[in-house]
Amino acid sequence: MSEPLAWRKDTNGHYCLSGELDRDTVPPFWSRLADWFPKESAVTLNLSEVKRVDSAGMAMLLHLHQQFKDNGQALTLCHVPAQLTVLLQLSNVDSLFTGDNTLVDEE
C-alpha cells in the first residue's frame, strides 16, 4: 500500500510534498486540488520527503506546472528525487522544467 501524499505549507510561498507520488495516491490528492492550491505568485515545492515517484506522479507534476502557468504563477521544484529526474529525462519533458528555471537541484 502506498503512503498517502500530503502537502504542507512551510513558509510563505514554500511548500513541501511528502509520501509517495504514484498511481494510488495521485487521484485522491488531485481531487482536492481546490483545497490546497496556493495563491502566491511564486511557489517553491520541496520534494525531499517524496519517497517514491512513478509516471502517474510525474504526470501530476506536469499538470500542476501547467495549472500554475495558466494562472500566471511560477512553480519551482527543489530537492527533486533522482527517480523523478530520470522519468522526466526518459519522457523527454525535463526541458519543461529546466527550460524556464523551474527545476532546482538543491542538496
Structure at a glance:
The chain has 107 residues and is of the alpha/beta class. It has helices at 26-30, 33-36, 55-70, 82-90, 94-98, and strands spanning 6-11, 14-21, 42-53, 74-78, 103-104.
Structure description:
- This protein is 36% helix and 31% strand.
- With 107 residues, the chain is α/β, with parallel strands linked by helices.
- The protein has a single domain, classed as STAS domain (Transcription Regulator spoIIAA).
- A five-stranded mixed beta sheet has the order 1-2-3-4-5, covered by helices on one side.
- The longest helix is centred in the middle third of the chain and has 16 residues.
Walk me through the topology.
Blueprint: E1 6-11, E2 14-21, H1 26-30, H2 33-36, E3 42-53, H3 55-70, E4 74-78, H4 82-90, H5 94-98, E5 103-104
Task: Report strand %.
Answer: 25-35%
| Proportion in helices | 25-40%
Distance between the termini: 29 Å
| Secondary-structure arrangement, i.e. CATH architecture | 2-Layer Sandwich
- Major sheet strand order: 1-2-3-4-5
Helices and strands: which structural class?
alpha/beta
Q: Given this structure, which CATH class is correct? A: Alpha Beta
How many helical stretches?
5
What's the SSE pattern?
A: EEHHEHEHHE
Count of β-strands: 5
Q: For the residues shown, what is the average pLDDT?
A: 87
At the fourth level of CATH, the homologous superfamily is STAS domain
CATH topology: Transcription Regulator spoIIAA
Low-confidence blocks of residues: none
Please state the CA-atom Rg, rounded to the nearest Å: 13 Å
Organism: Enterovibrio norvegicus
Domain STAS: 17-107
Protein name: Lipid asymmetry maintenance protein MlaB
